[in-house]
Amino acid sequence: MVKCPRCGYENSSDAVYCDNCAYLLTDTQGKRINNTKRKNSWDIGIARKIVIVLGIIIIALLLFSLVYNNTQPSHNETLNVITDDGSAHKTASYPYVAVIDYEGSWYAEMGNPNYLVKESGYGPKKFTLDCAAWDRVAIDAQKEDWSEGEFKVQLLRNGEVVAENSTTNVTGRIVINYNY
User: Fold this and answer.
1) What pTM, to 2 d.p., does this model score?
2) Segment 96-107, tens digit of pLDDT
3) What is the number of other CB atoms lying within 10 angstroms of the CB of residue 64?
């Protein structure tokens, strides 16, 4: 019996080719070829093969993740977040001031028409509006105590009055829309 070095099949002793896989068992002169099994370069167990393949996949995923994370903008860049430590606030950088002159209780919304700041109070007050770059400023103010006193609102830009309105109506409401 001759064992095939390729598939391990037991052939008859006079066989020239393996009956199972047709592997040549003799050379051209009829001499029997060494029937020892060839050494395979991947002669390692299947478990080690699986570990190597998984290791390569994990390394590839880690490299992809590293490259992806380093090429993406930060969360703050994506949201277009502007941070302020409070050191840059100067009066000149915020030229708008709202002045409410009333000796009673009032409520007002002031600022850019798309971003109004809500304030309420009693008596006269001044508010510096954080809207230096805006080309529109709105003020919507109203008496809350239903008094007959004069309710006056002014909008100042760089110290000059650019818009003002007043009322003595008991349900006094004042609206100022200023376009620069």
Assistant:
1) 0.47
2) 889 999 998 999
3) 10
